[in-house]
Amino acid sequence: MEPRGIAARAGRWSARHRRKAVLGWLAFVILAVVIGGQFTTESLTDEEYGVGESQRADKAYAEAFADTAKETVLIEGADPRSPEVRAVVGELVAELEETGVAENIVTPYDDPNQIAQDGRAALLTYEIAEPPRDADETVEDLVSKPEAAIESVAAAHPDLGIGYFGDASASKALGESFQEDFRQAEVTSVPITLIILILAFGALLAAVVPLILAATAVAAAIALLGPISQIFPVDDAVGSVVLLIGLAVGVDYAMFYLRREREERARGRSKEAALAAAAATSGRAVLVSGITVAVAMAGMYFAGAATFTSFATGTILVVAIAVVGSLTVLPAVLSALGDRVNKGRVPFLTPPEERAGREPRIWSAVLDRVLRRPWIAGGAALALLLVLAIPTLNLKMQVPGIETLPRDLEVMQTYDRIQEHFPGDQIAATAVIETNGAPESEVEAALAEFDRALADSEFVVGPRSVEESRDGDVYAVSVPIAGDGMDDTSYAALASLREEIIPETIGRLPGAEVNVTGFTAGSEDFNQLMEDRVPVVFAVVLGAAFLLLLVTFRSIVIPIKAILLNLLSVGAAYGVLVWIFQDGHLESLLGFESTGAITSWLPLFLFVILFGLSMDYHVFILSRIREAYDRGLSVGDAVGAGIKGTASVISAAAIVMVAVFAIFATLSAVEFKQTGVGLALAILIDATIIRAVLLPATMKLLGKWNWYLPSWLEWLPRSRFEFHGELPPDPEGGEEPEAPRAPAPEPARA
């Protein structure tokens, strides 16, 4: 019988043309890496990261002013007016000038505001001009020279505390720290995944196959981001996101495919028939799952922020590549290896041949009890998830700022000391004024009026400073505001500036446009964007998933139940995340200090990623349940058979994901800890409470209504991806699959 469906035909072709399939895949990966190596990945600029009013201000500022990085040197431990400190300041100026990089050096004796009121500290500031776009050096490269000069002066005067902080120095230090963190996470994730796969399959070769497929898919996707970024710049963290998702889905797809092939062999089918059966069943599930995951990831395109757009592009790319690899090169490899895939048996573990057809004891024990008392089990699971989700009602979001960054870095320690001596100095709101040809006299009068309003405001903690563009068309007025940049005081100060002070002063300039930026403004704008776009993203993702599952399984109940179950697992993960990071529990265990909020981009990111990955499991399980049901089993028996048949693979896949995601909880920045913990928790909840208890309980209770399709939807096409339980016959006379039964009577149609 000729195989039906794209997946089955792809598996048959690959098994017959193994050499072409394997060499074609290798050629694709190598070509992708070579092409990608010809391009430098273009990252988003600072102004491209922003949204709303603050982004408009950032763009106007970037166009009007020369690109410079502002740096600050702190000298503390003695009276700034003393001869000793004056001499040190002179040394710093001389050393900085000698670098040929530092410009516009301003000493505390040039600007009295750079001497602390406590008389124990002073600031020296300078600027580093951005190199041309076509230059080999970056501003982070250039900042190393002034840093070395400052460190040499500090070493010569150990009695004084001399440190530096600024845009470029902080970016350089943080970049190096994060790069090291990610490198360690990436290096650690591969051996952990391999160990889990070995334990899952009991054979070294069977464990290596999924890992190689996932690793090559990730390598190709990351390489292709280079040329893609020339058109659409990407977030610096997109490579790590691609690694996480690619490793997760790549291993999942290969595991399900390989497990089904070995299962069919254990039933007595020939190698060819077993592979054909795996292609016709697990291959279909891989295809549907990949489309579902990609649809979920595409929801990030509607978030309205460049960061989410780059994450969507990267994740969809790696999922698509992993699906193609699973449907083409994987069948070819399995066909070539045959039973040799069980080579490299691990001592003391159950032999691979025996575990292929064995039911998992723990899952069987849990499922049998759940299916006997579905009301009790389902009710208890639902109550537990709702309790876990309760803290979500108090969810607070904020853009990650200075307080979320690792304090073991010297630049961050210097920043904290600057804040102690000069409160509010580093937290400022900047009003960018585009005069659009307004007369200079009117601009000066408006600025004077603005100054008077600032002087009367309780939210301004220091004198403002003004930058004027060379053509005089743009002014940037920096206003130190009260608060720590993210508390209620800072947001009240921002609101006062935007809604009262500016409209009544410089906002009255004829034809002028005034926008406010800065840390607080950027955080407020991003939070507002999330409030506006989250409902849109949820609607797009849920709607698309509903339609896809509706067409795939020809049931209106299946997609509704899948969405509700996934929302429960995501809500529970949100709740635990709030309890830990917002409420400040487990700080010592996880090594963080609570900021009283959750990173603003994380809830939407977690929803999209978790919805996609949990739907991955859902499609695999439902495909096996429907297959068993179509073979004549009752709903309860089909649910038990379907979940037990996928339990070991789902457990292993979930353990892989939880372990890899948990690695990110060890990184230094709080936002990465939140991401790692959130992803790990949600996958754990989904793979246990949802898949082992709530899903089988609800399916048992619904019975035949699981497959209910209203009569007015009968026009829906019978998709190739629908699972009919039809397996190809064994040409070598092996054990035949049970014949599909006649369709069970459907419940009354609406």
Termini separation comes to 37 Å
The structure class reads alpha+beta
How large is the radius of gyration?
Answer: 30 Å
Helical run tally: 25
Number of strands: 10
Helix content: 55-70%
Low-confidence stretches: 720-728, 730-750
Q: How does this structure look, described?
A:
This protein is of the alpha+beta class and 750 residues long. The protein contains 25 helices and 10 strands. The chain is elongated, with a radius of gyration of 30 Å. The model is unreliable at 720-728 and 730-750 (pLDDT under 50).
A few lines on this structure:
The protein has helices at 5-16, 18-37, 46-49, 52-64, 83-99, 139-142, 144-156, 167-201, 204-229, 238-266, 271-298, 306-327, 329-337, 352-355, 361-372, 374-389, 410-421, 440-455, 488-504, 519-553, 557-582, 587-590, 602-630, 635-663, 670-702; strands spanning 68-76, 102-106, 121-129, 161-166, 397-398, 428-434, 465-468, 474-480, 513-518, 598-599. By secondary structure, it is of the alpha+beta class.
Describe this protein with a few key phrases.
750 residues; alpha+beta; 4-stranded antiparallel β-sheet; disordered C terminus
Question: Which secondary structure elements does this structure contain, and how are they paired or packed?
Answer:
Layout: H1 5-16, H2 18-37, H3 46-49, H4 52-64, E1 68-76, H5 83-99, E2 102-106, E3 121-129, H6 139-142, H7 144-156, E4 161-166, H8 167-201, H9 204-229, H10 238-266, H11 271-298, H12 306-327, H13 329-337, H14 352-355, H15 361-372, H16 374-389, E5 397-398, H17 410-421, E6 428-434, H18 440-455, E7 465-468, E8 474-480, H19 488-504, E9 513-518, H20 519-553, H21 557-582, H22 587-590, E10 598-599, H23 602-630, H24 635-663, H25 670-702
Parallel strand pairs: 5-10
Antiparallel strand pairs: 1-3, 1-4, 2-3, 6-8, 6-9, 7-8
Helix pairs in contact: 1-2, 1-11, 1-13, 2-9, 2-13, 4-20, 5-7, 8-9, 8-24, 9-10, 9-12, 10-11, 10-12, 10-23, 10-24, 11-12, 11-20, 11-23, 15-16, 15-24, 15-25, 16-21, 16-25, 20-21, 21-23, 21-25, 23-24, 23-25, 24-25
